[in-house]
Amino acid sequence: MTKTTEALERIKAFGMTNQMLTGDLTRIAAEYNYDFGHSEKSVSGLDAAYYPQFASDIRAEASYMARHYEVFYCLEASIRRMISDGLTTATGQEDWWETDCVPSHIKQEVASRIKAEIDSGVTRRSMEELDYTTFGELSQVIIANWQVFGGPLNSKKAVERVMANLNSLRNPIAHCSPLAEDEALRLSLTMRDWFRLME
User: Fold this and answer.
1) 53, 141, 190, 192: which is deepest, by most CB within 10 A?
2) What are phi and psi of 151, to 5 degrees?
């Protein structure tokens, strides 16, 4: 076998190994509904016509920020679910929002936000009032019901601090600004702090 033939055989073997690895990763990703980040995200329909027109640096930034948005979305949604489940169980009522569990000023703010959304003519984001609260208000609901959440969470002051940090970190994510490297690290640490509150 010549050196050229041997080199070609090695290249073929390398290519086949990579194809098999890619196939395995694709199968595992589909089976466990997980994105390893090795495949190109597809853009379809109207987006396919316009998305390529955005500058490549903006598209790269959006891809970077998508990871942080996903983490934050999961964290915020899980905190809302914890509050809703906890207060439903504690009150024995699905409509716990109408009880004294929620401070009246938060109820007024939420009612105002819902009315503004309805008046704007867009589809309501949710039928749950809790989904219209800010992070600061979520913190107040937790503290106001410490008899319910003082078991799963271990410190009022820590809850206030962690929720304040999350509220600050939420702004660049929600307002389409890039998250600085330090702030990305702070988000990771704050998320760890949140889960430490439940230990």
Assistant:
1) 141
2) -80, -55
- CB-CB contact of 148 with 97 (8 Å): no
Q: How far apart are CA 56 and CA 41, in angstroms?
A: 14
Who's near 140: CB < 8 A, 6+ residues apart?
103, 106
Give yes or no for a contact between 187 and 179, defined as CB atoms under 8 angstroms apart: yes
Largest CA distance in the chain: 84
pLDDT of residue 114: 94
Question: How many C-beta atoms surround the C-beta of residue 118 within 10 A?
Answer: 11
The pair of structure tokens assigned to 54 is 């955005």
> Taking the model in full, what pTM does it have?
0.72
Query: For the chain, first and last CA: distance in Å?
Result: 64
Calpha distance 196→22 (Å, rounded): 36
CA distances from 63 to 54, 85, 165, 179, 190 (A): 13, 33, 23, 12, 22
- Chain segment 77-90, per-residue pLDDT in tens: 999 999 999 999 99
14-54 tens-digit pLDDT: 666 666 677 677 777 666 666 665 555 555 565 767 777 78
| Domain range summary for the chain, segments of one domain joined by + | 60-196
